[in-house]
Amino acid sequence: MDIFSFLKTSGIIRADKKSKIPPEDKKQKVQRIIEITVLLLLGTASITSAWCVFEATAWGNVQMESVGAIALLQAESIRLTDNDNSLRTIDVNLFLSWLQAASDNATQRKIFLQKHFRDEFKPAFNEWLNSAKPGEIPDGTPFSLNSYELETTKELAQIKMNMSDKMDITRQANENSDNYVLSTVFGALVLFFAGIAGKWKWPIITLIFILLAIVFQIIVFQRIFTLPVINW
Asked: In the 8-state DSSP scheme, what is residue 213?
């Protein structure tokens, strides 16, 4: 007996070629549509939720890197602040010693102290000294002049700007991570409503759960397409 005869005898293949498989009734068609819809929702929700988890983790890493950079900048800022204060203290002490020598008419000591002024202090001191007549001590101090500016002060200003930028990045990364986590929660709701949609005998409840799943999936898509993405 060949294979065709066996299939024909067993009823798998009907002898009457004109006979047709009875069409599915309306209830079966609706059930199939529901199953396909649920399958699509579960698939898209799984993919989008995985993407949101990935982006939330990536933005969390950006946040941690920015926090680490801020810590390093803070340590550098402390070091530069100490150096800046030390250099200013040196300038102030030498200037006070020069004032004392000037009031004592100790010319040699004045010349000696001027030679030992730091290079950053000399332009401000000369500008201050030239603001009065020769032999007279000007009012005020060189430290109030714009020409008195230390390199450490410039570096501190730059570090503060860098810290501000890193803090903005940290805040933005934290916000983006939280938004992606929230999107993951919406994705979990899609999985929940789609998963229980076919468990009910009442069509209206099934329809409600499917509609809720679709609404939350639309929200997930809207958030994914509007939230910033990590550029690797």
From this structure: H
**pLDDT by residue (tens digit) across 171-213?**
999 999 999 999 999 999 999 998 888 776 777 888 899 999 9
Q: Looking at the domain assignment, is residue 190 inside a domain? A: yes
Q: Give pLDDT, residue 168.
A: 95
Sequential DSSP letters for 3-38: HHHHHHHHTSS-S-TT--PPPPPHHHHHHHHHHHHH
Query: Does 11 fall in a domain?
Result: no
**Residue 29, both tokens:** 């068609």
Task: Read off the pLDDT of residues 27-45 as tens digits, 9 standing for 90 and up.
Answer: 777 778 888 888 999 999 9
In a domain, 122, yes or no: yes
Q: Which domain holds residue 194?
A: 27-226
Q: What is the DSSP secondary-structure string of 86-149? A: HHHHHHHHHHHHHHHHHHTT-HHHHHHHHHTS-TTTHHHHHHHHTTS-TTSPPSS-GGGSTT--
Amino acid at residue number 80: L
